[in-house]
Specification:
- This protein has a single domain, classed as Leucine Aminopeptidase, subunit E, domain 1 (3-Layer(aba) Sandwich).
- The strands form 2 sheets. Strands 1, 2, 3, 6, 7, 8, 9 and 10 form an 8-stranded mixed beta sheet that branches.
- The two termini are about 20 Å apart.
- By secondary structure, it is of the alpha/beta class.
- The protein contains 6 helices and 10 strands, in the order E-E-H-E-H-H-E-E-E-E-E-H-E-H-E-H.
Length: about 220
C-alpha cells in the first residue's frame, strides 16, 4: 500500500500502515476503534499527545477529556474488580487485563470505541506490559466484535507504549494472536484489521522499521494463510 503493507490470512485481511491513528480511522457501523488502557482505566497518558491514547483523545475530544473519562467510569459501574496495591500503601480497583470498555458514539462522535486494558501497575514494579497481555487484549476485542457484529478493527501497536514492551514484540504478538483466533477458535467475523504504526510525517522514521514489518508479515503469511 502507499502507506504500509498488507497480507491476507485466510479470510482475514491485515493492513499495517504507518502514520497517525487519529487521522487514519475510517469509521462505520461495522468498525471498532481500540485504544490501550491500564487495568484501572485511569491512564495519565490520556493527556500525553506522545501516546496513542492521548494523541487520539486530544484530537477527537479536545477539551472534553474529563467528559470522556466520566463515560468510562459510568460504563465500569457495577463491573467486577479487585483491590490491588497500585503504589506502596495505595490500593485501587483493577478490572483485569483484557477488560474492554465499549462506547458507542461517545460525546456525539460517530464511532464505536473500545478501551482495552493491556498494562498493569503494581507497587514496587511500576507500569508493565507483557506479551501475554497482548494476546488477552486481542481475545477480548475479538469477543466484543463478535457480540456486536463488527467486522473491521483499527488499533495502534498496543502494549508498546509506557508499558515497556518492545514495539516489534508487540506487533508480532498482535499478528499471532489474531491469526490464531481466526484459525483455531473460528473467529471468522473478523474481516479486516488495521494496525497503525506511529509515524509523525511521511518522511519521518516510524516506530517500527518497514523491513521488520515486511518480515513479520511474510512470517504470518507463510504460516497462517
Amino acid at each position: 500500500m502507499s502507506d504500509g503493507y498488507c497480507v491476507t490470512l485466510g479470510s482475514l485481511h491485515v493492513r499495517v500502515a504507518f502514520g497517525r491513528l487519529e487521522l487514519m480511522v475510517e469509521p462505520g457501523e461495522d468498525c471498532l476503534l481500540a485504544l490501550p488502557a491500564n487495568e484501572f482505566f485511569d491512564d495519565e497518558c490520556i493527556d500525553d499527545q506522545r501516546s496513542a491514547l492521548g494523541a487520539f483523545v486530544q484530537y477527537h475530544f479536545p477539551g472534553r477529556v474529563l467528559d470522556l473519562q466520566a463515560l468510562v467510569a459510568t460504563a465500569l459501574a457495577g463491573e467486577v474488580s479487585n483491590q490491588v496495591d497500585k503504589y506502596p500503601g495505595q490500593a485501587a480497583a483493577s478490572y483485569g487485563i483484557g477488560k474492554c470498555v465499549y462506547l458507542v458514539n461517545p460525546l456525539d462522535k460517530r464511532m464505536r470505541l473500545a478501551m482495552v486494558a493491556v498494562t498493569t501497575q503494581r507497587a514496587n514494579a511500576g507500569l508493565q506490559a507483557k506479551a501475554s497481555y497482548v494476546f488477552e487484549a486481542a481475545l477480548s476485542l475479538s469477543q466484543l466484535m463478535a457480540n456486536r457484529r463488527l467486522t473491521r478493527l483499527y488499533l495502534p501497536v498496543i502494549g508498546s507504549g509506557h508499558g515497556g514492551l518492545k514495539p516489534e514484540v508487540a506487533l508480532t504478538c498482535l499478528l499471532l494472536a489474531f491469526s490464531e483466533l481466526q484459525r483455531q477458535l473460528g473467529h471468522h467475523h473478523l474481516r479486516e484489521i488495521n494496525i497503525v504504526i506511529y509515524r509523525s510525517s511521511s518522511d519521518a522514521v516510524p516506530a517500527i522499521s518497514e523491513s521488520f514489518v515486511r518480515s513479520v508479515l511474510k512470517f504470518a503469511a507463510d504460516n497462517f494463510s
